[in-house]
Amino acid sequence: MFGPCSASCGGGERVRSVRCVQKHGADVEKIPDSKCPPDTAPNTVEKCNLQQCPARWRVSEPGECSAVCGPGEAKRIVSCVRPEDGQDVEVDQSFCSLQIEPPDSVSCVVDVCPIGWESKGEAPVYVWSPVVSQCSKTCGNGTLQVWFSCVDHQTRLRVTDVHCDASTKPPPQSEACNTSPCPATWRSKQGVCSVTCGGGVANRVLYCARETEGEEEEEVVEDSECSDFPKPKAVVSCNDYSCPPRWKVFNTFPCSASCDLGVAQRTVSCVQFVYGKESLVPEESCHPAVKPATRVPCLVQVCTFRWEVKPWSQCSVPCGYGIQSRAVSCIGPSKHEPLSPLFCMHMPKPITIQGCYMAGCGDVLPISDVTTAVMPQHPLDHPSPSPTAAITIPQATSKTSPTPKPSSCGQLLLIESGTVDLKNMTGRCTVSIGRPLDEVIHVKVESGSLNCRKKDYVAFFDRLAFVKKCEQVAGSELTTRTNVLLVRQNLLTPGNGVVFTYTSQKNTKKSHHQDCDIQLFSPTGVFENPRTSNTNHTCRVLINAPPLVKIRIQALHIGLVFNSTNSQSTYIMIRDMDVLKTNVFKGQQLFQWHSSGNMAEIEFHGDYLHSKGSFRAEYSFMPLLY
């Protein structure tokens, strides 16, 4: 791009910078000029504003004053000129006919003539001679200063003031000059420069104006009144001084890691911007202390465990209401193979079963989204109170495992602290501990001996974490993150086993439940949907039964009206914590649900969170039969 023209008329030049570059996709990199063929380089200079400039009157400096002393006249040369190729060329005076021709003589004063100055005496005569300054303005009421100095009348040379009579020295004075009004001229207001250094451009707003009586005031007039004068350039150069060298980051290469924190290499060079052109300069020109790093940390994506969801299966029925399922697996960041679901428990597991509808089948009784609706004959209106002692349901025995002591195994312990003795409990023995939602459980293994080679172990599970121990189990301690704990011992060596104590305490760390959550431990009862005004979370009903006991839930009442607005966002999700299986129930159809283990979570979404009594269900414990 060419810069501004050097002249507004009469022929000027404008220049532009030309550099050798190489393209890398969308990026352009400066390379040495020797890399480009010299015969293909574009012109850097071109002619501009070739139209002729308007002519104007030009006057010379006044000649010698005609008077020996006192007032007189001084001649000067008046000519009509026109700028051509940067110089004033004299042309015929007809070209200046539209302008007022200046006079060819001006008034002048030599000095004050003394009395008897015409005498021919030999004695020197000294007089006070006026010294006149130039007029402060060429037009529009200027001023000039007049002061007096002592001169030799014959030689007109200045001498010291002691030769003249000090009492006759006139005082300094100011006089008006060039009182004729100035013609209107082009004026401008300049904007901000495009760059702070290295040569930029600034736009100017041009307008025609003349001065008024006040020196700082002006009167804007029509542009036509300035037509006799060349119009200045609207764009001017600015801030032409060189920019200081600086560091610039060019190319950044790919991250060394596909996920989590890695390192990326990048090119850092020293550049300088001069007259619109950025060039590479030696690195010594830039300050080393502020050089950007050539190796920087980078993060493409976070390496994490996630749920991978497969497509939905076909509906289970050819017509009417049925169910469809899909596989959900826990996948790690590096290997695309299913892992234990415990690695993905930090985020909700997607639903695996949902209802489906495959056109009508005639007169068929509607069923629930998941299971056939079953209405209870004697529903309970109020939930049973939570027990204060342990709930025990005897565990079923198998042919291969000896029966554990009923005093320890198969219990749901609800008291705040206690000691559990699992020594000599051969086979598989499970104990569950439950506390209010705002408490956690601290466990310490007081004594224990397990044979790891024979697969003896003790395991702890608190809904969020699973810990399995065998070696050095005695003396170990742990604190749960939730209000429930499942302890399972597998013992094949008679005489071995563990003894542990537990205490409950208030949870002072991050809570994993909401204020609207409800915890139930009773063997049977009725519950309703909890409500909340917070739109950032859901509400749950948590049911915990003794080990080796299943939970049955029967929906009794659904009072919501479903439409196209809330049908997708309003639903009930029941999670079977033993097998990490989730069922979703939508619509107004009542349903019945059975767990595989002893822990269930009922989670409410959408309008259920804001409508009191919109859902009511009965639950009960059922022994697990083999």
Automatic annotation (TrEMBL):
Gene3D superfamilies: Spermadhesin, CUB domain, Thrombospondin type-1 (TSP1) repeat. InterPro entries: ADAMTS_ADAMTS-like, CUB_dom, Sperma_CUB_dom_sf, TSP1_rpt, TSP1_rpt_sf. Keywords: Disulfide bond, Repeat, Secreted, Signal. The keyword Signal applies. GO terms for biological process: extracellular matrix organization; proteolysis. It is found in: Secreted. Transmembrane segments: none annotated. SMART domains: TSP1. One of its GO terms (cellular component) is extracellular region. One of its GO terms (molecular function) is metalloendopeptidase activity. Residues 516-622 form the CUB domain. Pfam families: TSP1_ADAMTS (PF19030). This is CUB domain-containing protein. It comes from Etheostoma spectabile (orangethroat darter). The lineage of its organism: Eukaryota, Metazoa, Chordata, Craniata, Vertebrata.
